[in-house]
Amino acid sequence: MEVGRLPISAALKGKLVSAGYTSLSLLSSLSPSHLARDLNISENEALDILKHAPHDGRIDTSSGHHIISGAQTAWDMLHEEELLTRITTSSVEIDNILGGGISCREVTEIGGVPGIGKTQLGIQLAVNVQLPVHCGGLGGKAIYIDTEGSFMVERVLQIAEACWDDMLANNAISQNVHAGQVGMQPKDFLENILYFRVCSYTEQIALINYLDKFISEHRDVKIVVVDSITFHFRQDFEDMALRTRLLSGMALKLMKLAKKFCLAVVLLNQVTTKYAEGSFQLTLALGDSWSHACTNRIILYWNGNERYAYIDKSPSLRSASAPYAVTARGIRNNVSNCKRIKLM
Amino acid sequence: MKPEDLLVRPRPTAKCTAGCPVLDHCLGGGVPCRSVTEVVGESGCGKTQLCLQLLLSAQLPPSRGGLSASSLYLHSEFPFPLRRLRQLARARPMGPRHDPLEHIFVHPLHSAHHLLDVMPKLESFVENFKSQFPVRLVVIDSIAALFRSEFDNNPLDLKRRSSMFFKIAGKLKWLAEKFDLAVVVTNQVVDLVAPNEGINGLRIGNLGCLDSSGRRVCAALGLAWANCVNSRLFLSKDKEIVSTVNDMRDGCGCEPMHCGTRRRLHLLFAPHIPDTSCEYVITREGVSGVCR
């Protein structure tokens, strides 16, 4: 029996089996409190059992070809990747170059000059993640870590209302879901954004260390947005080596979170100037070593009067750029651009 | 650590009226609390005027768009415009027993380091200030003047300077969050010598280029400081020739001309309001927006 291989006490194993939990996949979607109730054990013990059980049912440990536990074949990974879900950005053109949106299990860095719309995109993603899957979301919650104080609740509500509108329109067209079944109100979007305001870099590191525990208690979190990762790290550092160490430690933790809980991590970054080859160039802040820290890198920039998003780094996507607009309703396609396409 | 409940958080964020409905409309209700708002403009375009007006309107009750609050004015440009403040205060009577000047605290600033030294004092002042008008507005006029003399234009000094920016901004934002303060800083502009070349032509915000008095300008203190503020307003002015009377009948050939100033407020970026702009005038009574 599968539970027999869990590294837990025999008494707990007995309780698991007698309660009917014979296969590990049965444990995968349980909350600790639920399990504790079922087995009549303390919540800590339940948490301990779940820690050893695989978190998603897809990793099948019973087939014998895993020499090292936790290892996967590329074939399995391909299957997993096909199941990988993405969060829409609400701009069809950005979604297109991203292959459908911001992907889970990965760390995505988004950078650009002040006023280009980083925070707007961050808020949009925190709202969109709550949409049902057929609307481009994941039906999950969002963690929003605000280091700069640019998160305005009134703006979130505005974006949430527009998003809710679109969702109703979408449902009305597809006829899949009746409006009553949605049961979500604009203000529920606010309730599902877990907001942390961070005022120093020590607080920021402490919070990111704590996230692992926090998310294991809130399994429905599907995105972590940090706006911005940079702000507190551009002050007060005499020792740049220390800064690099702290940052890369943080990046590793975030990457681990993304993998472990199958969620998207979005880090917003500022731009700075760098002196290279005799001229000043624009580059994302935090230095060269940081540029290795994120799986994907998207740069937002102005081109004339239009805003563009550019994929600067990605293991799977080709580099491309797409225009977008920041409207009262949130991030949307660039309308003037659509007109141009129609004309052609 | 617990997440904040967004439903409990004041919604919309408390705002301090700018003292005029047209400007307020442009600013989405006024200057937001828990946030750093920057006012950029060349000298004589009305930055200080706007700040003085904010000091007064912060004292209004919330029903009239204010914060019922005292305010703190840190100035690095001398002297403090006391006479103008009194003039503005007289134009806005607030009641028989209310002297607006009693609720404005003024402190001089001499350098960026001085500002950092003042910060802890400022914190304890705001914390221990017991009055029915708690401090809710802090104005720094101007941030640019603090940095203009002290730092050289070499890489090391520039690096020290930008680390200082983030330190100051970090402290200001922390204060703003802790005490629910509205923070307003003013900034100067610098001329753009070689437009569209390298970093100097870098576009920050909604306007493609900033023009004031017929010159191309950009906000002082560069890109690093632009990352430190939450919202940025740009005040511009331009000479405008208005012929008042078209009186050619007496044939003297000398057409009476009137030289006016056309002033405009642009929103360069803000997390909560879209790109807008409006014209404004400065009169004896203060700064007010004009609908055209």
Automatic annotation (TrEMBL), chain A:
<dbReference type="InterPro" id="IPR052093">
    <property type="entry name" value="HR_Repair_Mediator"/>
</dbReference>
<feature type="domain" description="RecA family profile 1">
    <location>
        <begin position="83"/>
        <end position="271"/>
    </location>
</feature>
<keyword id="KW-0539">Nucleus</keyword>
<comment type="similarity">
    <text>Belongs to the RecA family. RAD51 subfamily.</text>
</comment>
<comment type="function">
    <text>Involved in the homologous recombination repair (HRR) pathway of double-stranded DNA breaks arising during DNA replication or induced by DNA-damaging agents.</text>
</comment>
<dbReference type="GO" id="GO:0006310">
    <property type="term" value="P:DNA recombination"/>
</dbReference>
<protein>
    <recommendedName>
        <fullName>DNA repair protein RAD51 homolog 3</fullName>
    </recommendedName>
</protein>
<keyword id="KW-0233">DNA recombination</keyword>
<keyword id="KW-0067">ATP-binding</keyword>
<dbReference type="GO" id="GO:0003677">
    <property type="term" value="F:DNA binding"/>
</dbReference>
<keyword id="KW-0547">Nucleotide-binding</keyword>
<keyword id="KW-0238">DNA-binding</keyword>
<dbReference type="InterPro" id="IPR013632">
    <property type="entry name" value="Rad51_C"/>
</dbReference>
<keyword id="KW-0227">DNA damage</keyword>
<dbReference type="GO" id="GO:0006281">
    <property type="term" value="P:DNA repair"/>
</dbReference>
<dbReference type="GO" id="GO:0005634">
    <property type="term" value="C:nucleus"/>
</dbReference>
<dbReference type="Pfam" id="PF08423">
    <property type="entry name" value="Rad51"/>
</dbReference>
<dbReference type="GO" id="GO:0005524">
    <property type="term" value="F:ATP binding"/>
</dbReference>
<keyword id="KW-0234">DNA repair</keyword>
<dbReference type="InterPro" id="IPR016467">
    <property type="entry name" value="DNA_recomb/repair_RecA-like"/>
</dbReference>
<dbReference type="InterPro" id="IPR027417">
    <property type="entry name" value="P-loop_NTPase"/>
</dbReference>
<dbReference type="InterPro" id="IPR020588">
    <property type="entry name" value="RecA_ATP-bd"/>
</dbReference>
From TrEMBL, chain B:
<dbReference type="GO" id="GO:0005634">
    <property type="term" value="C:nucleus"/>
</dbReference>
<keyword id="KW-0067">ATP-binding</keyword>
<dbReference type="InterPro" id="IPR027417">
    <property type="entry name" value="P-loop_NTPase"/>
</dbReference>
<keyword id="KW-0547">Nucleotide-binding</keyword>
<dbReference type="GO" id="GO:0006281">
    <property type="term" value="P:DNA repair"/>
</dbReference>
<dbReference type="InterPro" id="IPR020588">
    <property type="entry name" value="RecA_ATP-bd"/>
</dbReference>
<keyword id="KW-0539">Nucleus</keyword>
<protein>
    <recommendedName>
        <fullName>RecA family profile 1 domain-containing protein</fullName>
    </recommendedName>
</protein>
<keyword id="KW-0227">DNA damage</keyword>
<keyword id="KW-0234">DNA repair</keyword>
<dbReference type="Pfam" id="PF08423">
    <property type="entry name" value="Rad51"/>
</dbReference>
<feature type="domain" description="RecA family profile 1">
    <location>
        <begin position="12"/>
        <end position="189"/>
    </location>
</feature>
<dbReference type="InterPro" id="IPR047348">
    <property type="entry name" value="XRCC3-like_C"/>
</dbReference>
<dbReference type="GO" id="GO:0005524">
    <property type="term" value="F:ATP binding"/>
</dbReference>
<dbReference type="InterPro" id="IPR013632">
    <property type="entry name" value="Rad51_C"/>
</dbReference>
<dbReference type="InterPro" id="IPR016467">
    <property type="entry name" value="DNA_recomb/repair_RecA-like"/>
</dbReference>
